[in-house]
Design goal:
It is a single chain. This protein is an all-alpha fold and about 45 residues long. It is built from 2 helices and no strands. Helices cover about 75% and strands about 0% of the residues. The two termini are about 30 Å apart. About 0% of the residues are buried. The mean pLDDT is about 90.
Length: about 45
């Protein structure tokens, strides 16, 4: 979330775009890489 600060303070569309891309990239990485690995290692969560 710290990446949004320069974009908001300087009203920079480029900085906001980079911050948004970073957030999207983190979630895509989690769902496509980390989550399947955690299910393989630990099994599915109960519930």
């Amino acid at each position: 979330m710290i990446l949004y600060l320069p974009g908001l303070l300087l009203l920079s569309k480029a900085a906001l775009a980079v911050a948004l891309f970073n957030d999207i990239y983190i979630w895509v990485h989690y769902y496509c890489t980390e989550r399947p690995d955690m299910e393989t290692i630990y099994g599915k969560a109960p519930g």
